[in-house]
Amino acid sequence: MNMKKNKKLLVSSLNLGAGTILASVIAASSRSPVILGKPHAPMFDAIRLAFPDVDPKRTVMIGDR
User: What is the pLDDT of residue 27?
Assistant: First the structure.
Protein backbone atom coordinates (compact mmCIF):
# COMPACT_ATOMS: atom_id res chain seq x y z
CA MET A 1 0.00 0.00 0.00
CA ASN A 2 1.36 3.43 -0.93
CA MET A 3 1.05 6.25 1.55
CA LYS A 4 1.60 9.86 0.51
CA LYS A 5 0.84 13.28 1.93
CA ASN A 6 -1.26 15.58 -0.16
CA LYS A 7 -1.88 19.08 1.27
CA LYS A 8 -1.63 17.85 4.85
CA LEU A 9 -4.14 15.07 4.13
CA LEU A 10 -2.87 11.52 4.42
CA VAL A 11 -4.02 9.57 1.36
CA SER A 12 -3.84 5.79 1.15
CA SER A 13 -4.17 3.95 -2.17
CA LEU A 14 -3.56 0.52 -3.63
CA ASN A 15 -1.62 0.21 -6.86
CA LEU A 16 -3.28 -2.66 -8.69
CA GLY A 17 -1.72 -4.05 -11.85
CA ALA A 18 -3.56 -4.58 -15.12
CA GLY A 19 -3.80 -8.33 -14.50
CA THR A 20 -5.58 -7.82 -11.20
CA ILE A 21 -8.09 -5.41 -12.71
CA LEU A 22 -8.59 -7.67 -15.75
CA ALA A 23 -9.24 -10.69 -13.51
CA SER A 24 -11.96 -8.80 -11.63
CA VAL A 25 -13.65 -7.74 -14.88
CA ILE A 26 -13.53 -11.34 -16.17
CA ALA A 27 -15.04 -12.62 -12.93
CA ALA A 28 -17.77 -9.98 -12.89
CA SER A 29 -18.72 -10.32 -16.56
CA SER A 30 -18.16 -14.08 -17.09
CA ARG A 31 -16.60 -13.22 -20.45
CA SER A 32 -13.16 -13.75 -21.98
CA PRO A 33 -11.26 -10.63 -23.06
CA VAL A 34 -9.43 -9.90 -26.30
CA ILE A 35 -6.00 -8.69 -25.18
CA LEU A 36 -4.87 -5.75 -27.32
CA GLY A 37 -1.66 -4.87 -25.47
CA LYS A 38 1.86 -5.70 -26.48
CA PRO A 39 3.10 -8.30 -27.30
CA HIS A 40 -0.23 -9.87 -28.30
CA ALA A 41 -1.03 -10.29 -32.02
CA PRO A 42 -4.14 -8.03 -32.07
CA MET A 43 -1.94 -5.03 -31.17
CA PHE A 44 0.34 -5.66 -34.13
CA ASP A 45 -2.69 -6.30 -36.38
CA ALA A 46 -4.03 -2.85 -35.40
CA ILE A 47 -0.65 -1.29 -36.20
CA ARG A 48 -0.58 -3.00 -39.60
CA LEU A 49 -4.03 -1.59 -40.41
CA ALA A 50 -2.79 1.92 -39.68
CA PHE A 51 0.62 1.37 -41.35
CA PRO A 52 0.22 -1.26 -44.09
CA ASP A 53 3.85 -0.95 -45.23
CA VAL A 54 5.23 -2.22 -41.90
CA ASP A 55 7.33 -5.35 -42.36
CA PRO A 56 6.87 -7.73 -39.37
CA LYS A 57 10.34 -9.21 -39.98
CA ARG A 58 11.89 -5.79 -39.43
CA THR A 59 9.75 -4.66 -36.49
CA VAL A 60 10.54 -4.51 -32.79
CA MET A 61 8.04 -3.70 -30.04
CA ILE A 62 9.55 -2.03 -26.98
CA GLY A 63 7.77 -2.24 -23.63
CA ASP A 64 7.42 0.39 -20.97
CA ARG A 65 9.24 -1.51 -18.23
Answer: 94
